[in-house]
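Q: How would the C-alpha cells look for this protein?
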Amino acid sequence: PMTASNKAAGYSGGRPGTAVAGGPAVAGGKGPAPPLRKKPEDGPDVAIKEHEAKCHELLEASSRAQVNKDWIRAVETAREACKRERQLARVRENAGMGDSQNLELAFATQLCLGNALEGNDQIADAMDTYTQIVKNKAFVGGGRVRVNMGNVYFNQKDYQKAIKMYRMAIDQVPANQRWLRMKITRNVAMAFIRMGQYVDAANTLGEIMDNEPDVHTGFQLVVCHYAVGDKDKMKRAFIALLKLRAYESDELDEDGGEDGGLHGAGATRRGATADDVLGDDGLRQMMREKQLEARRKILQAAKLIGPKIAANEELGYEFLLEEMHAHGYEFLANELEMEQALAHLRGRGANFEEGKRALKEFEKKEHALKARAATNLSFLYFAEGDFENAEKYADMSVESNRYDASALVNKGNCMLQRGDMEGARDCYLEAVGVEADCVDAIYNLGLVNKRLEQYQDALVNFRKVISIIPNDPEATWQLADVCELMGNRSMAIKQFDLLHARLPTDPGVLARLGALHAAAGDEAKALQCYNESHRVYPPNIPVIEWLGTYHAQQRAYEKAHEFFAFASEVKPRDTKWPLLAASCQRRAGKLADALETYKSVHARNPDHAECLRHIVNILTDLGRTSEAAEYDEKLSAAESRGAGSFSGGGDALSAVETQKPLIGRAKLEMPEGGLPPDEESPHAPETPGKALNQSVMSDEFGMGGVLDDELLPGM
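A: Here is the predicted structure in C-alpha cell form.
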C-alpha cells in the first residue's frame, strides 16, 4: 500500500540534524537566518531628530560648564546650541513644517546663552539676549526673564531699574502662581533695603508674610523694623516669625544637636534601626538643615532686637524669652539666656558679678547648657585671677563634656598656673586630639614645652599656630624667642624682622631686635633699633639705660646726660639716674651743673655718702674750700653710719662705662597699667599699656576657650 509523505511536516530522508529550507530547526542545526535590517528612511524627520539631539547635548554641556564656573566654555557651547537651533528651524521651514517649530527649545537655548554671558561678565550682550527673549511674543512666559534683567541691574546697584523689571515680571506671572509672585516681590524688598528705604521694604515684606510667609522674609522684616526703630512692630514681626514653626516636626526634638534623632530615649530597637536607615535620607537631611537655619535666624533676630524693644536690655530679653517659651522654642530660649548672661560681660559697662550670677543659674539646667556655662565661668574666673574657682568650674565642664576642647584648655591653664606642667601638657594634647586646629591648645602647649626646655617641640607648636593663623604676632614672638633660646640668633632676628614689618611701631619688638643686634656685635643696627623704640615709647627704662650707656662709652657725655636725666624724671625715687646724669655733666666739664645735680640728690637723700663725696670733690676743684669742709663733715658722719654706697673713689658712670650695654633676652616690658602712681613722669604717655606695647608677650596662658562661640571675645 501507498504510505503518506511526511515532507509537509518538515522531515526528509537526510541525516539527523538537518532541516529542509523553510522548515523548523532540527536539534543540532544552526536555525534560520535573522531578518534583514530595514533600510532607514531618508527624510526631514531624521535630520530634525539629529539636530534636536545635538542641540540638547550642547545645552547640557553649557549647563554643566555654568555649574563648574567655566564661563568661557559655557558661552561657546551655548552659542553653538543657538546655532544648531536656527539650523533646525530652517530644516523645518524647508520641509514645509514651519508651523511645528519647537519654541521651548528656542527659548531654552537663548536663555542658556543669556545666563552664560551674564556669568562671563558680558553684561551688555546678556541684556541684549534677554531683551530678544522678552520681545518675542511667541515665547510663553518669556516675560519672566525680566527677573534676570532685574538681577543684572541689582548687581550693578541700579536699584530703581531693578525694581521696575521685577514689577514688570510680576505682571507677567499668572495670579494662581502666588508663590512665584511672592518670590519676585521679595526681590523688590531687597532692592528697597539696599536703597535704605526701610519703610517701603517693611511694607513689601509684610505683604509677603500675609500671603506666603517664610523664615527669611520674617527675619528681613524684623531687621527693617529694627532699622526704622519701631519697637511695637519689631515685637509683632518677631512673634510672627515664631508662629511659623518653619520646618518643625513633632518627631524632631529640641536638643539643638547636629543629628537630632527622630525618636526619644525610649525608642524601640525597631525604631532605632529605622532611624539609622533614615539617617542618610537626603530629604530628611535637607529638612534638618532648614530647621537649624530657621533656628539660627530666630536667635539672630532675638539678639538684634533684645536690647532695643524695651526700656532696658534686661526687660527686652525677658519679653523675648516669654514668647519663645510660649511658642515651644525651649532650646532657643536657653540659648538666648546664655547670650543675655554673656552680654553682662561685654562692653564698657560690663557687670561681671551679674554675668557670673546669670551663668551660675545654668548649673540647674540641662547637661549641655551646664557644661557650656561652666566653661565660660572657668574662663572668667581665670581672667580675674581667681584660680581656685577657675579650676572648680574647669573640672565641672570637663566632667560634663570630655570632648570639649575649650574645657580641656581651661583645665590645662589651671594646672599650669599651679605648676603642674606635665598635667597641663596632657590636657593640651587631649584638646588637640579632640579639635586638631584648636589654636589655644597648640599655643599653650608651645609655652609649656618652652618652660620644660623642650625647644624643638615648642618650635613645632608655634609654627603650627602660624600655619593656622598666618602672621599671628604672638606666635611669631614666641617662635623668635625659642629660636634665640636654641642659639639660632640669625633665625631669631629674621622672625623679629617679620614681626617688626607687621607691627612697625611696637617698642618691645624694636627693643628685642636691638638686643639681638647688640649681642651679634652690630652696634649700628642696635643703636637704630633702640633709638626707634625710645621714640615710640620713651619711658622704657632698659632702653634708656642702653642708650645712655652706649653714648657714655662713646664719650658723648652730653648725649648720655640727656637719657640719664630723662630716666631720673621717669624714676624720681631712684638715685641711680641723677647720679649718672651728674657724672656725665662732670665728665663734660660742666662742674657747676653737676654740683647742682648732686645737691638736689643730697636734698632728697642727706645720708647718701657717694653723693656727698662727689660734692666735696667738685667744691675742692672749684676752690670753695670752706663749703667743701662743711660737706666733708657731713660725709664723715654719713660714712660712720654706713649710709650710701662706696665706689672706691670713682663715680656712678665709671661702673657703667666698664660694662657692656644692655643685651640679652630681657623682654623690656612695662607694667600693663603704666608706671606706679608715685613714679609717673610728665614725659610718659597717658596710656603706656598694651596699646603701646602690644607684642611684649609674657608667657600668659589665659587664652583658654576663646574659640568657643559663647566665650568672652578678646579676653
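The mean pLDDT is 78.

The radius of gyration is 43 Å.

Upvote if useful.
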